[in-house]
Amino acid sequence: MILEPSIDKLQTKINSKYTLVTLAAKRARQIQDTKIHQVESPKAATYVGIALEEILEETLIVDPEYKMMKE
């Protein structure tokens, strides 16, 4: 079974696997709660899959100014 989108394609959009997983998980929870997504016709059957499709289509991006550090 081949999963789409592939990790190689996703890492061209977000190069950190940690960031990719965190972003997809948070977005999947939002999609689950609101039932609203930004993909025209998603191929994925799961919320995480839809979130990953959003990342691949660049409708979901990481703010480069966001810092995950404690002050």
UniProtKB/TrEMBL annotation:
Q: Which SUPFAM superfamilies match?
A: RPB6/omega subunit-like
In terms of InterPro entries, this protein maps to: DNA-dir_RNA_pol_omega, Pol_omega/Rpo6/RPB6, RPB6/omega-like_sf
Organism's domain of life? Answer: Bacteria
Q: Which GO terms describe its biological process?
A: DNA-templated transcription
Pfam families, per the entry: RNA_pol_Rpb6
Q: What class of enzyme is it?
A: transferase
**MF terms (GO), sorted A to Z:** DNA binding; DNA-directed RNA polymerase activity
**Keywords linked to the UniProt accession:** DNA-directed RNA polymerase, Nucleotidyltransferase, Transcription, Transferase
State the reactions this protein catalyses.
Answer: RNA(n) + a ribonucleoside 5'-triphosphate = RNA(n+1) + diphosphate
Look up the EC number in the record and give it: 2.7.7.6
Fetch the SMART domains from UniProt. Answer: RNA_pol_Rpb6
One GO cellular component term, please give it.
DNA-directed RNA polymerase complex
State the function annotated in the UniProt record. Answer: Promotes RNA polymerase assembly. Latches the N- and C-terminal regions of the beta' subunit thereby facilitating its interaction with the beta and alpha subunits.
Q: How does it assemble?
A: The RNAP catalytic core consists of 2 alpha, 1 beta, 1 beta' and 1 omega subunit. When a sigma factor is associated with the core the holoenzyme is formed, which can initiate transcription.
Per the similarity annotation, which family is this? Belongs to the RNA polymerase subunit omega family.
Against HAMAP family, the record matches this protein to:
RNApol_bact_RpoZ
Please identify the protein, giving its name as recorded: DNA-directed RNA polymerase subunit omega
Naturally occurring in which organism (per UniProt): Gracilibacillus orientalis
